[in-house]
Amino acid sequence: MEQNTSGSGKKALIAMSGGVDSSVAAFLVKNEGYDCIGITMKLFEGEGAETGRGRSCCSLDDVKDAENAAAVLGIAHYVNNFSGDFKKNVIDTFVESYIKGTTPNPCIDCNRYLKFDRLLLRAKELGMDYIATGHYAIIEKDSDSDLFILKKAKDLKKDQSYFLYSMTQEQLSHTLFPLGSLEKNEVRIIAEKLGFKNAHKEESQDICFVPNGNYGEFIERYTGQLSPEGNYIDLENNILGKHKGIIRYTIGQRRGINISLNKPMYVHSKNIIDNTVTLSEDKDLFRKSLQAGDFNWISGKPPSGSIRARVKIRYNQSEQWAEIKMAENNTVYIEFDKPQRAIAAGQAAVIYDGDTVLGGGTILC
User: Any catalytic annotation for residue 110?
Assistant: First the structure.
């Protein structure tokens, strides 16, 4: 909690998902002297939401784990229903993006519209000074500029700064990330010592509202419409076979193509109008540039002209050097030094200056 060394007299609303990270975050904030309330956000209702099946979140088991941690800490705990906001801003966006042929990142939307928008509003309604979450990231205040800075976590394997690029100065000024300077194993040790039931709980791996990972099946069930079969084609428009519905594919994908070919082939692109999925060899998936829109600069304003920085185009990728040029309507053009594999529209391009997040936006093309 680099932006606040003491919580004396301050109040914090803790987002408690039922996982070990948010539970330990609650302990650390309380230990700093904050007056704390725990809140579990009920985000959706559907398969897995009540039964606790899979490694998801929002189940009854998760609520019980959050209640247990709050009881151990001696803080009040409440469950608030945000399912309407979640449906509108996360699930509907997810479904519409796949139908339009892009590849969304619902975790980014959840952070943007639920955790650091709707939850922060709830905190203010309750007279709280801060919200706190179990994200692995660091917030600091720059003494020279008086601006808040978003940085990578100490544990780079757990760092979640990529998902937080949309945060504003206002949001950063009212947010605590107590796990930013800890390693994951340290968090579990703290949970063990405190007697939390979730000390060794498995981490969420799947998108919470698609617990089995089958996006196509979920979208068809959610919309009530089947995604029709169409043609696989190659870069010369030769028909290679039949795909199982365009919503089941994303750029760079190999698994699930399910046709016999004489060499490894990957999803190169999709054409919603023609209902075709273009396949290519891996070498044809690389390109050097992209355009990103709806761009948020952490400082609150874009740099003038162009800058040199590192850019990450997916969570599990290392940042790559690029030239970033500003354009109109919160759009940037990014030219990489080296070609990048499988740039997918709908995903996020996030810009870093060393360990500091400068900003990010949605890849348009």
Answer: yes
